[in-house]
Amino acid sequence: MKNFMRLFLPIFALALLTACGSKTAGEKVEAKEASGEAATASASAAKYVVNTDKSNIIWTGSKATGTHQGTMKVATGSLAVKDGNIESGNFTLDMNSIAVTDLKAGEGKEDLEGHLKAGDFFETGKYPTGSFTITKVESASGDASITHNITGDLKLKDTTKSVTLPANVAMVGNTITAVTPAFKINRTEWGIQYASGLIGTAKDKIINDDISLVINLVASK
Fold this sequence. Notes:
Blueprint: E1 27-28, E2 32-33, E3 46-50, E4 56-63, E5 66-82, E6 85-100, H1 109-117, E7 129-139, E8 148-156, E9 159-172, E10 175-179, E11 183-186, E12 210-220
Parallel strand pairs: 1-11
Antiparallel strand pairs: 2-9, 3-5, 3-12, 4-5, 4-12, 5-6, 6-7, 7-8, 8-9, 9-10, 10-12, 11-12
């Protein structure tokens, strides 16, 4: 479990890459029906509280004219850990913290952040938080940089889907970290269809349905 906490550091690295040219970074993860059943921890597992100052999500998005990157904060979270392994846990995303990092004030930064928070995208006034609840954790093999596959229910707006994310989880002293490599989800599966090719958007206006994310989590006992 060498870096499961970083699983949410750089991403709500959400990457919206354009469908007409650029490819979104990372492997595609399949969205399935949510299980609705959180993983349970053993009685002897210790509680680790997510450090919200050191944890976040990094997103990248693009359309025909280019890409944009940004971050999102983790509002709360905790993990149940035993013998250096994560058994269960969850964290909440602060959707109002969506920030664009590749633009400066006065360069369109405020407009893009406002649009991402509006009804076309995440509608943060109505849905101020998102969440990820772990439903299963399995050891991984075959790639030295990936220690575990973490399955959980990801909720964005009013839609919840099950996804399995590769992660590197590590324990150092009383701190555990979890980090995912860049991965991508299809935003339309969470009901975010603005400027999607699926709804007949003109080619030069299309925003890629895939969002690239990196999650980094840091939690302490």
